[in-house]
Amino acid sequence: MNYIIIFISFIFLWKSNLNAQFSDKALKGQKKINKFSLSTFTYASSLDSVKIITFLEIPYSVLQFIKKGDKYVANYQTSIGIKDEDGSQREYSVWNDSILVYDYFDTKSRIMNRKHFSSFSVSKFIDYDIIGELQDLDTRKKGLKKTIISLDLGKQTPVLLEPIFLLDLPGDWGFKNGKIPTYGNTVKNLGKGIELNISGYVDDGTFELEIFMTNGNAVDSLIMKKRYQAYNGFFNEYVYVPSNQINSLKNDFTVHLKQNGRFDKKIISFSKFKTGISKHITSIDLAIKQMKYILDRGEYKNSDKQFRNDKEKLFYNLWKKRDPTPDTEHNELMDEYYKRVAYANENFDGWQSGWETDRGMVYILFGPPDQ
User: DSSP string spanning 127-196?
Assistant: First the structure.
């Protein structure tokens, strides 16, 4: 009798373990398919409406590629839809597509991607839900992303919509031909410069736009001031900024809209990729302060004077001596350190920034727990 009980217990434990393995595998697959991105950009298109440009970007790594002869193929279906605040479907775009590559390593790429976009014209007086879906047609797994567009702009003037950064890329991406929008997060290739799409609502007549920049070399430096004429209660302008003006890691743009003694403003940031600096860093000043857990007393004492003279040089020097692969451009230790800082800020914030808390300090120094 005892042998039967032991045997039944063994079968039960074996099945439980097998089910847990399948469950973990399914969960990992679901997380993988959800690693596509949904991005939205809006600009004024008429007196009472806005244009919503929505992008769905699919990294190759989120799809399952099947080997066929000397090539690898992934098949998928994706869609972008927009709903009113009451849940009614307004518009819907769907694509059935496939990706073909000849190199296996391309199938695992997080950089190579396929883009789809839709353009929706909607009222500026209500809010909308944007929904992006992705289904791998081979595994049948589905991913879902959702974002809320809060408009409800009313009839107040003047009012600015969020300015949009535009980079060069051949094709039609919903703006000027050959221009694609970006959030401006750690951009690698600026080309000759970027364009700002600035739009909003004004009374008919003249209005003024001013653009100020703050970065490591300037504070509220006026880079553009211009008067425009409005005839239809809205405007949609493009302003070019040469790349030599965007020479810091983080560049803050403040846009002022002025008309009839009233004004509105928006602040947006553009971060530039620099070789040897972790993608998790947006401010050299803050990044140096966040090194306090690993600086020795002498470095901490001497860094104060150097900090005032040349912040970037100080930062490079402090990390160069800690670079496990000094002959390469990439500093793996730096990247891991600031990845932990970013995690601490997201998960341990309270009265202080997450990296400054005790839990944040422990996580930054020792990493995630084993259990």
Answer: -EEEEEEEEETTT--EEEEEEEE----TT-SSEEPPPEEEEE-SS--SSSTTEEEE--SSBS--TTEEEE
Q: Which whole number is the average pLDDT over 36-58?
A: 94
Q: H or E element: which one contains 346?
A: helix 332-347
pTM more than 0.90 = no
How far is it, in rounded angstroms, from Cα 199 to Cα 258? Answer: 13
Higher pLDDT pick, 299 / 344: 344
- How many whole angstroms separate alpha carbon 36 and alpha carbon 142? 11
State yes or no: cis peptide before 59, omega within 30 of 0: no
Q: Which residues pair with 240 in a beta bridge?
A: 195
C-beta separation of 263 from 211 below 8 A: no
Assign residue 184 a region (left: φ > 0; alpha: ψ between -120 and 50; beta: otherwise): left
What is residue 331's three-state secondary structure? coil
Which tops the pLDDT comparison, 328 or 98?
98
Identify the residue with better confidence: 192 or 134. Answer: 134
Per-residue pLDDT tens over the stretch 74-100: 999 999 999 988 888 888 899 999 999
Given a cut of 70, is residue 190 above it in pLDDT? yes
Give the burial string for 308-334 (b: 16+ CB within 10 Å, else e). eeebeebbbebbeeebeeeeeeebeeb
